[in-house]
Amino acid sequence: MRYGFILAGGTGTRLRPYTFVLPKPLIPLGAESIIERVLRSFRDAGLDKVVISLGYLGHLVEAVIGDGTKYGVHVEYTREDEPLGTAGALRLIPFDVADEDAVLVVNGDTLTSLDMGELLDWFEERGASAAMVCVEREVKIDYGVVMADQQGNLVGIQEKPSTLNTLSTGINVISGKALRQLPTGRVDMPDFLMNLAAGGERVVCRTVPDLWMDLGRVEDLAAANDLLERGLI
Asked: What is this structure's pTM?
């Protein structure tokens, strides 16, 4: 079985003042909210059961999404009495997950063109315990970078250099077997994945060329709406 899990409990402080009245996943992107787009991608991937982890203003998310029928999926909700982290929230999944099952975990503020069904096919073919979806981003420094030796003598200057980095998108796939190794308390996903790898479990990374945007800041949301208006999404 394949399941979807959406992390929708954040307070969205970087999107204030919008998030004073709306939780971040319900911020509009064109004619629909961010989380509705995520649910449609889950439906297109053939996921029947989806869990949404609620926190800040979670009652509004539940009021809009309901049981998921209008999006073609069955939605259930979990609520954290205290913050459990981006991995710890998975302990609240309200149904049994078998060792061979896969749980697709996505942040509720994620915009992507990634084919979720193809990602799950790829994951299952590899027989891994977990997977992390990554993208490449060029990071530019708008200053001259100075290089000096141990004595402080000038060796070189790089004017406005750039580096190509591999970044985590926050989109992960976790096997049922790996979920059984999730410790109690607050656990964030990077720590959980690193602990799995350190314990001998196979954690695979997939770098994709697809559109991916974290809509956690006002400027990111504005950029996404601009792409939408220009027909590029």
From this structure: 0.86
